[in-house]
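Objective 1b: paired records.
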Amino acid sequence: IVGIKGFVFKTRTGETTVHAEEFEFLTKTLRPIPIPKEVENEEGEKVVYDAFADKELRYRQRYVDLIVNPEVRDTFRKRTKLVQTMRNFMNERGYLEVETPILQPVYGGASARPFVTHHNSLDMDLYLRIANELY
C-alpha cells in the first residue's frame, strides 16, 4: 500500500486523477522479492546466484519477473518502442487505428470451436474472437 500527497484534477478527457507530489510506502511486503546476487568470477564474468530462474514460476508470476529480471524489462521496453514507432509511422501516413471486439455475442469466421465465457452483468454468453478480418 502506498500513500500519495498531491492534488486532484481532471484531465483534458475529463478523467479524475491525482497529481502526485510525494509518495511513501505505508506497509511492508508480505514476502521479500527474490533479488538476484551478482558476483564476478576469476575471469571477470558476472555470475548470478539465487536468481528467479524457474521458468514455470516466472510465467506464473510475471509481475515478480518484471521486477527481478532486467532482461525482461528490457524486452517490454523494446516492444513498447517498436509498437510506438509503428503507430507513429502509420499515423504520419493518415492510417487509422481501429479496435475490434475480442468478446462477441455471435461467433464466426472459421470452423474452429469457439471459446465460450459468461458475462455475469449482462447475463449472457460471449465468444472469444476467432477471425479479425470480419471487422
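Objective 1b, second protein:
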Amino acid sequence: MITEGEAGVMAQAGERGERSARRWGTMEA
C-alpha cells in the first residue's frame, strides 16, 4: 500500500510517480 507521504512524493515527482507506480506494481489509491 502507498502511504500518504509516498502518494505526495509521487504526485510531486510526476514522471517518477509513474515509474514508482509500476515499481510498486501499479498500486494506486
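The mean pLDDT is 67. The chain has two helices and no strands.
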